[in-house]
Amino acid sequence: QVQLVESGGDSVQAGGSLRLSCAVSGHIFSMYSMAWFRQAPGKEREGVAAISIDGSTKYINSVKGRFTSSKDNAKNTLYLQMNSLKPEDTAMYYCAATHSDGRGAWWFALRSLNTGEYNYWGQGTQVTVTS
Question: What b/e sequence results for 72-97 when a residue is b if at least 16 CB atoms lie within 10 Å of its CB, and e otherwise?
Answer without folding.
Answer: eeeebbbbbebeebeeebbbbbbbbb
